[in-house]
Amino acid sequence: MSDYEREHEDQDAGWTSPEVEGHDLSRQPPGVAPLLDVVELALQLRGWRYEQLRDDVIRLRVCGSAADYEIYLSAMQPIGVVRCFVVMPVRISAAFQTPAVDLINRFNHELLLIGNVEMQPDDGTPRWRVSLDVEGGDLVPRMVNNMLDAGISACDRFWPALMAVGVLGSAPESAMRLLTQG
Known about the structure:
Layout: H1 3-7, H2 9-12, H3 35-46, E1 51-54, E2 57-63, E3 68-76, E4 81-87, H4 94-110, E5 116-119, E6 126-133, H5 141-166, H6 172-181
Antiparallel strand pairs: 1-2, 2-3, 3-4, 4-6, 5-6
Helix pairs in contact: 3-5, 4-5, 4-6, 5-6
C-alpha cells in the first residue's frame, strides 16, 4: 500500500463511482479516477480507436493535415503523470540528423508553447512530447484532448520544415523562415 493509499484509506470506505466502459473507478480515492481510464474516456468520446499495449500505455493512429501520426499515451498512476508522444512517420538519416536537430531546437525555442519536438538519436525518429502532472488533482478528458490537439497541431505545423531539412537537405534557417512567414 502506498503512502497516499494509507493516508486516504478511511476516505475510501463506502466511496463508489460509476463504471466507465468496463473500468471500475471505485478503487481510487474520492474524486480521483485512474489516469488511464480518463485517457480512454477522452478517446472514446472522440470516437477514436486505440489499443492498449500495456497496463499503462495506449497507442492510436490519427490522420493530421500534413501526415499520419502514431500516438502513445502513458499513464504513470503512482506519480500522477500522463505523457503523450506524437510520433512522426519518418526516420531522418544520419547524414541529415545534425541539421534536423538544429531545426528542432529553433522550432522548440521560437514556435512551441506546449510540449517539445525531439528526435530519437538511435533511429532518427522525430516526435512531439508533453507530460502532465496531475498529482493531487483530477485528470479530465478535456486535458487529454488538449494534449492530443496540441501535439497533432505542432506536428502538422512542423512537418513541411522537417521534410525540407531532414529529407531534401535544406538549411534549417530557411525552413524556419517558411514556418514563421507562412
